[in-house]
Write a structure and sequence with these properties.
3 helices; mainly beta; Jelly Rolls; about 10% helix; 15-stranded mixed sheet; about 270 residues
């Protein structure tokens, strides 16, 4: 009877994980519940040390978070209420060479490239594609009635385009924000945006606002300055230059939409 129960338990455990022939692409280094991975119809709860496989779709709850270190030293954070699929990896299960491909389906993410050639990375979202060149950046994906993708750049070069486009847009300066709706565009540098605009971005780029929930290897030190003014720095008083010629304000050009209202041309 004891031998029979042992065999049954082993069968249950094996049915909850991918086949042994499948090589893991990475390992979870930090997990906050709830976080699950689904593969071929079977779901498993992720814990620290769980393997991630090609085909896994990782989903998190309202307080969930997953920090993954891949075999090529790429780092990926999946924030709360987020979903991502590991579509392909550099070495496939049959030994063939592949690409590092992830589908960011919804939510907030942090991505830092590893040791693989930079043209081997591809990130897909519901509105477009992101390519990287030795890069660290955050992504927010809204997959609602009017979907959009936003990118906050920190290091290296980020390329991005709308689905079907052939021309890439480029982010290469710290704190520059890109957006993909029905077009791909550069919104500008968050340091020069208004407080209201930065507050909106804090809700999307949660790790630029606060990195405390992350393990230190997943921090990007310059990210904090993108959404926060340096301590002790005040806006300088205006300089009196005498009478000025009145300027008639022009109508701003609206280039995009955000679910839940708008407050400036770039964010309408």
């Amino acid at each position: 009877m004891r031998k029979l129960m042992t065999c049954v338990l082993a069968a249950v455990l094996l049915s909850a994980v991918p086949a042994l022939a499948d090589a893991p692409t990475g390992t979870t280094k930090g997990v906050k519940p709830a976080a699950d991975a689904a593969l071929d119809g079977a779901s498993r709860t992720l814990v620290v040390g769980s393997d991630i496989f090609i085909g896994d779709q990782v989903s998190t709850g309202p307080k969930g978070q997953v920090q993954i270190l891949f075999n090529d030293n790429t780092k990926l954070v999946i924030g709360p209420n987020s979903s991502l699929k590991m579509a392909d990896y550099l070495v496939r299960n049959n030994g063939d060479a592949g690409k590092f491909v992830v589908d960011m389906l919804s939510g907030s993410f942090r991505f830092a490239t590893g040791d693989a050639p930079k043209n081997k990375y591809e990130i897909n979202t519901p509105t477009g594609t992101i390519g990287v060149r030795g890069t660290e950046f955050d992504v927010f994906v809204y997959n609602g009635p009017i979907p959009y993708t936003r990118i906050m750049h920190y290091l290296g070069i980020v390329l991005f385009k709308h689905i079907g486009d052939t021309k890439w847009q480029e982010l290469h300066d710290l704190c520059t924000v890109g957006q993909i709706t029905d077009i791909a565009s550069v919104l500008g540098n968050s340091k020069t945006m208004t407080n209201q605009e930065r507050d909106r971005l804090k809700g999307e780029f949660r790790y630029a606002d606060n990195q405390a929930p992350l393990l230190r290897p997943f921090w990007v030190l310059p990210s904090f300055e993108c959404l926060h003014k340096p301590t002790g720095v005040d806006t300088p008083p205006p300089v009196n230059k005498g009478p000025q010629t009145p300027v008639t304000p022009t109508q701003p050009v609206i280039i995009g939409a955000i679910g839940g209202g708008c407050f400036r041309a770039r964010f309408c």
